[in-house]
Amino acid sequence: MDIRSQVSMVFHLDKCIGCHTCSIACKNIWTDRKGAEYMWWNNVETKPGTGYPTKWEDQDIYKGGWERNGDSISLKGAGKLKGLKNIFHNPHMPVLEDYYEPWTYKYSDLFDAPEGDDQPTARPVSLVTGKPMDVQSGPNWDDDLSGSPDYARNDVNFKDLSVPEQESLFQLERMTFHYLPRICNHCLNPACVGSCPSGALYKRGEDGVVLINQERCRAWRMCVTACPYKKSYYNWNTGKSEKCILCYPRLESGQAPACMHSCVGRIRYLGVMLYDADKIHEVASCDEKDLVDKQMAIYLDPFSEEVIEAAKANGMAESTIRAAQLSPVYKFVKKWKIALPLHPEFRTIPNLFYVPPMLPAMASVDSEGIYESTTKSLWAGIDQYRLPMKYLASLFTAGNEQKVKDVLSKLLAVKIHRRDVTVGDLPREEIEEALSLGHTDPTEADSIFRLTSLATFNERFVIPPAHREESIEMIEATADAKGETGFGFKMQPARGL
Predict the structure, then answer these.
(1) C-alpha pair distances (Å), 437 with each of 296, 357, 378
(2) Is 205 a domain residue?
(3) Is 14 exposed, middle or buried (0-12, 13-18, 19+ CB in 10 A)?
(4) pTM for this one?
């Protein structure tokens, strides 16, 4: 076993209120500058919807991620041969209109306009060209508009839904939408890293954060094409590619990333997961129906003596192992099995997991689109869930509806158990049936409730020490061996005054 550590995340979608505070926090720190105006390393989308950039999930358009070729995999739209053919003209790369043209307003017109009968207005001005423009779209242009024909009806995840199932969602309109916050997944098998001709992208060994070396980047932009989540961007001002760095300067000082620290709904969790790097190829190249199970199996039990011994033999610090044992992500993903990866069929093995949304469960829609608001019990049950299972399965399990049902059954069991604890008005048979269907028990249900609803800051974010002293020792040892400083400059002899 090649045991390594990976900083991973969980987003609980039932708690997201779509306030975009996370996006603004990230924008203010990292992308509020020339050339990066259109970049949103963190964005919040409305589902159903087309997202940002438009239809990013449709790899028939963008050719992102990996595809299976027998027992191996290859990049869909990048790589040595494909990249060489498209190096000067890449038809699969999103253009500015797929994102949006960033703009500001000419506020001086409000103050300098001469006196008159008309109310002065501030005209929108492009941040790219500096000229007046007509605003056509924005990063959250379809926000809260899941029922609109221009966006929600074009959602890629509708491909497996029947026409009555689709139309039933539009009859309900906004009663069915939910929010989907997205950042870079810092994948175990990142397509962006495999696509870069310059070798500028790399995955940090100590925590798995994927970064772009700005010195080596030559703006081939193959990473933009290769990333199926479209979280690698091109800075038109500097001529370099940029992406989410998971606020690693904050992580190294024990702080949570800005988007997570500022989250109003407290939907975000961060922690360490231990995984076996020897199994990455096996997971990425398996049958599509096995992708979720294989990915979950690559993450290891941090309490196992065998895993601990192998991790220490690989140079992992005791504090990192301890952080993995306390990780909230491990509990959601491995212990409770209620968090799932986004589009595992892209085969990048993402490390951002989502607890699927349950939404209000007081009404349902059948296969013919008939709306029913009466239920035998307080909750209608998973079988009468208003949002089609096929839709959620397309998002989180590569089409496996049963896995989504298993997660929602457990979440519903937690709700019913907690209703019994706090109110006590449900029949005992219903409670026992819910716990049985959810494959859980009162103790586990209470633990899930605790981490979901009442967790403290330190319980939601378990950040291992960065061990900067070891990094400094490595830099100094390398410098001594080469006669250089840690930055690659030749060391000069000391000079007297």
Answers:
(1) 21, 18, 17
(2) yes
(3) middle
(4) 0.90
- Domain around 23: 14-100+122-247
Q: Is the pLDDT of residue 317 over 80?
A: yes
pLDDT at 276: 95
**DSSP category for residue 257:** P
Q: Which two tokens stand for residue 3?
A: 């045991």
Look at residue 227 and tell me if it is in a domain: yes
CA distance 469 to 485: 16
pLDDT of 324 reads: 96
Q: Is residue 129 part of a domain?
A: yes
Distance CA 411, CA 337 (A): 11
> What type of residue is 345?
E
- Segment 295-304 shows an average pLDDT of 96
Could you tell me which residue, 346 or 425, shows the higher pLDDT? 346
Which of 171, 173, 176, 251 is CA-nearest to residue 211?
251
pLDDT in tens, 128-180: 999 999 998 888 888 887 667 778 888 999 988 888 777 777 765 446 788 99
Q: How many domains does the chain have?
A: 1
Report the half-sphere exposure of 146 (CA within 13 A, side-chain side): 22
Rounded to 5°, the CA angle 242-247-248 comes to 100
Alpha carbon distance 203, 209 (integer Å)? 6
Question: What is the per-residue pLDDT across 202-213, written as a single tens digit (0 to 9) for each?
Answer: 999 889 999 999
Nearest residue to 176 (alpha-carbon basis) of 360, 413, 383, 412: 360
Cβ proximity of 265 and 14 under 8 Å: no
Q: What is the CATH number of the domain that holds 203?
A: 3.30.70.20
> How far is it, in rounded angstroms, from Cα 99 to Cα 243?
15
Does 363 score more than 70 pLDDT? no
Dihedral sign for Cα 205, 207, 208, 209, please. Answer: negative
Using CA atoms, how far apart are residues 257 and 251, in angstroms rounded to an integer? 7
Flag whether 166 is in a domain: yes
Phi, psi dihedrals of residue 222, rounded to the nearest 5°: -65, -25
- CA neighbor of 36 nearest in space, from 289, 202, 212, 163: 212
Q: Do 184 and 192 meet the contact criterion of CB atoms below 8 Å apart?
A: no
Residues 6+ apart with CB under 8 A from 287: none
Angle at 274 between CA 211 and CA 261, to 5 degrees: 55
Kindly report the CA angle at 430 between 426 and 431, in degrees rounded to 5? 75
Distance, in Å, from the CA atom of 161 to the CA atom of 489, rounded to the nearest integer, reads 60
CA quadruple 396, 399, 405, 407: dihedral positive or negative? negative
